[in-house]
Amino acid sequence: VLLQAYGGGLLQPGGFLRLSCAASGVRFREHAIGWFRQAPGKEREGVACIDRSGSVAHYSDSVQGRFTISRDNAKLTFYLQMTSLKHEDTAVYYCNLGGPWWGQGTQVTVSS
């Protein structure tokens, strides 16, 4: 199984960004997916997750209303649309598939 995360970058507060995670070597549609992040000096935390069909999503309180998780089962890819970015969103973002499989992480830095 390979998960390839990309799309990170340097943004100003209030900006928007979309992260993508492409999967291969797995029955993608059989697994729930999620995004996690880890800020410097902090533990990794869950940001958002979505079920196999893409119908039910959950978000952490810190991103609720600003981030949107989605998936395209035909493209074996899932996304994290981030808007109204804040300094505290700065972290390495990791995609997760089904629990055991992780992407390599992509850096998001929000700085003025």
Description of the molecule:
With 112 residues, this protein is mainly β. It contains no helices and 11 strands. Strands 2, 4, 5, 6, 9, 10 and 11 form a 7-stranded mixed β-sheet that branches. Strand 4 and strand 5 form a beta hairpin. The protein is globular and about 40 Å long. The protein starts with a strand and ends with a strand.
Shape: globular
| Cα-atom radius of gyration | 13 Å
List the uncertain runs.
none
For the report, how would you describe the main beta sheet? 7 strands, mixed
Strand content: over 45%
Number of strand segments:
11
Count of helix runs: 0
Identify the quaternary structure here. single chain
State the end-to-end CA separation. 37 Å
Average pLDDT over all residues: 95
Strand and helix layout:
Elements: E1 2-6, E2 9-11, E3 17-24, E4 33-38, E5 45-50, E6 57-59, E7 67-72, E8 77-82, E9 91-97, E10 101-102, E11 106-110
Parallel strand pairs: 2-11
Antiparallel strand pairs: 1-3, 3-8, 4-5, 4-9, 5-6, 7-8, 9-10, 9-11
Please tag this protein with its features:
112 residues, mainly beta, seven-stranded mixed beta sheet, four-stranded antiparallel beta sheet
Concise description?
With 112 residues, the chain is an all-beta fold.
